[in-house]
Amino acid sequence: MLFARKGCCATGSYETLNEDAIEISCSAEELIQGSAKQPDPNFRSRAPSGSSTKWGFCRRADLLFTVYIPLYWCYLFLGALLFSRIEGPIEQRFIQSIRDLRADFLKSHPCITDADLEELITEIISANNRGVSAIKNATSEPNWSFGQSFFFSSTIVTTIGYGHVHPLSEGGKIFCIIYAVIGIPMTFILLTALVERLLIPATWLLYWLNSKLGHLYQPFNIRVFHLGIVGIISLLLFMVFPSLIFAKLEPGWDFLDSLYYCFISLTTIGLGDYIPGDARDQPMRPLYKVCITAYLLLGLTFVMLLLHLYNDIPQLNLGLFLLRSSDPAPNDPERMRLSSTGGVAPKYTSHNDQPVRQNVKVVSRPVDSPSPEEDTTPVHAQMPPIIPANQ
Q1: What is the pLDDT of residues 168-185, one digit of tens each?
Q2: Are the CB atoms for 227 and 330 separated by under 8 Å?
C-alpha cells in the first residue's frame, strides 16, 4: 500500500491518505506503458480504420481465391492426363482381348449371327448395370434380401453410394429420395455426437502432451504431433487391420485391393468396383453386411474426428486464406492464440503464462471517525498484551 508522510511527530506516527479509494494495480505492464495511455492528438489520423482493414483482408482473400480456381482446374486436368496414361493401355488390351474372344466365338458357332450376339451382350450389360447378374449361380442370395437391403440403406445415408445395386421401380426411386433426405441428416447428427464424445479422450491426450512436452516445444508442434498420433491410431484401426481381414475373407482380394476398398469407402467416394459380402456362397451374409455397416459408421466417425482436429490448427487450415471473414473463429481462444502468434506463442506449461493482475482497493477511514473496535494508538506506543499467570 501507498502511504503519505504528513509529518513526523514526537510519536513518529504516519497517517494514511484521506482519499476515498486508492486502486493499486500490480501489473508491471501498466507501469511500463503508463505513459502510453496519455491521449495522442494524432492517434486518429495514424490508426487505420476497421473498415479499411477489413476491406484489405477481403481483397487479399478474393485475390487468392481467383488464383486458386485455375490451380484447381489444373489439378483436375493433371489427374485426367495421368489416369488416361496409366489406365488407357490396359483398357485397350482388354478391348482387343474381348474382340478376339468374340471373333473366335462366332467362328466356332456359325449359326449365331453377329447382330444376335450384339443384342444379347447389350441386354447382359444393361442387366448388370441394374445390379442383376446374368451368370448362373453368381450369388446365393438376391440383391434385395434383408441383408443386401440393409447394406444398401447404409450406403445411402452415409453418402457412400456404391452404385452396384439401385432401385429398379419408380416407387423405389421415389422412396430412395425421401429416405435419403431424412436419413442423411440423421447420420450427420449421429456422427457429430460420436465425434463430440471422442474429442474427450483426444483432448485428454493433448493435455497430457502439453504437460510432458510443453517446456520443450511450441503449441503448434504439439498439436501437429497430437494430430499425427490420432491419425496413426485411426489408420491402424480402420485401414490396416480391416484390410488384413478383408484380404482373408474376400476371395480374390489381396491386401492392396482391401486397402483400396477401405479408403474409397471411408472417404465416401464409393466407386462400387469392390463390394464385400457378394462372393458366391458367402456364409452368414446378412450378419456380415451388418458388421460392414458398423465398420463404415465407426470409420466415418474417426475421419470426421481427424478433420475436426486438422481444422483446429489454423496454420494447417489453408482454406482460411480464401475466406473473406477476418475473424473465422471468434469463439475459439486457443485458435486465436495460435493464429495471432503465427505458431510461436509461449510454450504450453502447467502454469498460466498470462500476467497475473491483482487489484487491491484500499479504502481509508476518516481520521475523525474511528471505528469503535479500532485501536488508534500507534503501534510503538501500544502496551504489550498481558499474559495470565496460569498460561
Answers
A1: 889 999 999 999 999 999
A2: no
